[in-house]
Each structure stands twice: as C-alpha cells, then as structure tokens.
Amino acid sequence: MEFSPGVAVLTLYFLNYLHWDENLSTTVYHAFSGLCYFTPVFGAILADGWLGKFNTIFWLSILYVIGHVVKSVGAIPTVGNTEVHVALSIIGLIAIAFGTGGIKPCVSAFGGDQFAEEHIQERAKFFSIFYLSINAGSLISTFVTPVLRGDVQCFGTDCYALAFGVPAALMFVALIVFVCGSRMYKKYPPQGNILGSVFKCIGFAIKNRWNHRSNQYPTREHWLDWATEKYPKKLITEVKMVTRVLFLYIPLPMFWALFDQQGSRWTLQATRMDADFKGFVIQPDQMQDPEYLRLNITGTQNVTVTRGNAAVCSAQMREKVVVSLVVENTRCIQVVDSNEKPANGLAAVRFINLLNVTVSNISVGGEAVQVVAGNVSEYTTLKRGIITVHCLIDGTQYSIYLGLLDFGGAYTAVLRTRNDLGKEIQAVVVEDVSANSFHIAWQIPQYFLISAGEVMFSITGLEFSYSQAPASMKSVLQAGWLLTVAFGNVIVLIVAQAATMEQVRSP
Q1: Fewest 10 Å CB contacts: which of 22, 78, 142, 323?
Q2: 457 pLDDT exceeds 80?
Q3: Which sequence ranges are marked TM in the entry (predicted)?
C-alpha cells in the first residue's frame, strides 16, 4: 500500500543524511507510516461531514504537495544546519501524512461512487484497475526515485532534494488532471458527521447495556439494539453493517506490521548485502516491494475475503517471517564482525603513507584526507565502486587507481613508489574487512510472498469494504480499512522502541 513515492528513500535519508541510527530511523519511519493511516479518519470526517469527497481530495492534495516541497527544501545541505534540516523534514512529513491520509479514504470511495448499484461487476473491475494503476506507479517510483537519489549528485552528495521534489511536481500535475475532469464526475453532497454519529451510537449502546445489566431486563437480539431508545433504526442497522465488517479486520494489523517493514528493516538488511548483478548494481531502496511481482499476481488472481483466504494469508505471514529470519541470520554468519566494518552498503578506506613526503588533498568520499609521511589515516567511508583518488604529492597532482572497493568492505591503501618506474606512485590495496558476500537476490522470495499476501488482501479488501458499507458510510469504512495499517505500524513502533530501550540499558 504505497502512500508516497518519496518514501522509497526515506529510511536511507534518515540514516545517511540526518545521521540517525537504525532504531531511530525505523521508529520515525513507522511513526510517519502510522500517521499516514490514522489520518484517514479525519479525511473521512471532512468528506462525509463538510467538504464532500471531491473537495477533500482537492484541498488535501495541495497540502500533500506542500509537504513534499518542504521536505525537499529540508534535504538541501546549504539550507541551515542539522536542526533546520530535521525541523523541515518533520514538518514536511506531517503535512504529507495529513495530506495523503485525508485523500486515501476518499479516492477509492469517490471512484466507486461513479458506478450505479446495478453495475457491480464494472465496479469490481474498477477497483482491480485502480489497484493495478497504484502498483504501476509504485513500480516506476521504486526504481526511479533511488536513481534520482543515488545516481544524481547535488551539493556533493546524494540528491535527496531531487528525490523528494520530483514526486511533488508529479502530484501537482496529477491534481491538475483530476480537476480538469470535474464536470464529468458524480459528486454526492456530504451526509453530515457520520463518524461522530457512529461513535455516539456505539457508546450509548454500551452504556445503556451496562446500566441494564441485571437479569430482570429482557435480552435483545444484538448488543447495538440497546441504542434504540435514542437513535433511529436506520442508523443502528447501518452501524451493525459497519461493525460486522470491522470485526473481520481484527487480524489485519499483524499482516501490515510485517508488510511495512520492507521500507525499514528490510531496506536496512539490503544495505548490508551484495547488490551487484554482474555489473548492474541495484540500490537497496529499489528492492522494497518489487511491484512487478504484484502486477503479475494482480493480473492472475481474483480472490474473495473469506476465512479460507485469511488462513492462506496467515500461512504466508509465517513463511515471510521465516524467510526473512533465515536471510538475516545467514547473512550475519557470513559477515566478518569488526568495529571498522562500514554499514549501509558503504565501503571504507584508509591510507598508509610510505613516501617521504606528506600526501595532501586526497579526494575520497567527498572528503579531503591528508597523510603525513610514515603515518596512517583514519577510515573514510564512500560509496561502493571502482575508485581512483586524486591527491597532491610534493606539489604535483597524481591520480592513483585503487580498484573496486566493494559493499561493506574496509580497505587499506598503501601509498608507495614503484621500484621499476622510479617516481611513479602506486597504491597497494589490502582488504582489512571482507566485503558483503551474501547476495541481495536472496530477498526476492520474501518479497514474492509478501506481495502475494498483499494482493489477496488489498484488491478484494477495497472492493469488499466499499460494497458492504451503507451509502452514507463509504469513506468511514475505507478509513477503518486503512486504520488496520496504522495499528500494524504501531506494533513495529513499539518493537523498535523496545530495542532502543534495551540498547540504553545494556552496558
């Protein structure tokens, strides 16, 4: 359930740009994800109570664009200090969360509103095409956004500003296209604060049942019937319909707790693996949720929300956990444990100067290193690649070839004069810590399983939620569906915070 193209690089942005640790990055990522799925409640209230679905989509899309612009500005190194970057990033993420959260329950419901009740099959096809379109866009963003981040350099580092800015521009274009079709849409007026009425009806039923808990009062067919003294039968019947569907949602948060970790823990796992496919290097944030798998599954499966489907998806959840744990444990066994091992898919290099002069201005990893004759420099981290460093030796500029510095490897480059060529300088490179040897392709099975599970839930879940909801509560039930994702992220948030507290307690 993709909610923002820029989210594909969000964890790496926290880790490498804001220099947060893995637990804090995971915590903020899932706090943001959870907020994106809690805010649909407010979007549903706005849509059903005051603005209507069309106006809610329009105004909150503007807020969404503003959020991306603010986040993009916060990713420009020359704009203020670290505190300013953090502040702008948080403000931008909050704006995006309320923007995308407000839009979410309205877009699918607004699309469903365009079909008459007798066009059930056409409406079901719409939800499949709607979901297919989301995944097609997500497929593009999954591959393009990391390219904008990693392959395009701006301000001497990864271009996070561009990676966040392009989605803002594209969303603005999409908003214009949406508004241009305004005259062709069916627009239903808001029905009032339905969500508030639902909560009040449920609250009164519970309170009234508690007040009449003695055996002298006759039982009623349904616990919501205890609200008949105050609320009309039509509302109570509709609330019954909603609560029956919400009861089916109870197991879903555990699924989403696993699913959304692809943007945090699984991406971090990918940074510690070998991502070289015979010369083609994949970015760690390009691995998360490979949409081509979901597109293929979407095109071949049409399942219904049943107990059997829930059982299949529960089995898939267990398999995903097992596969992910096997990959992580095997990877850890194959990685050399060393304090000097660079994290996040980077390489590290230090220099030993065996020349009789100081070597200065060694350009490596965006930093200028200087090594006095006979000394050893500190490790400098840099991106994996075939590296040639440029340095100044005794007033002369030299280019020294180091070769491939691979993922997670730590290297020592010994600077010396070649004996057979007199004054020519060379570097003898020694691998201090082994590079990552466990290949990133081992993540594909876990992604395939999680994609299959999500397709089983999401396509039919969206259509099922819409079809089962009363006309006045379409957005409310869509918001309830999205809330299951929010609670899933809360589960991950609690686990990440527990890990942080455990680290604090450890000596």
Answers
A1: 78
A2: no
A3: 28-51, 58-80, 86-107, 128-148, 160-181, 479-499
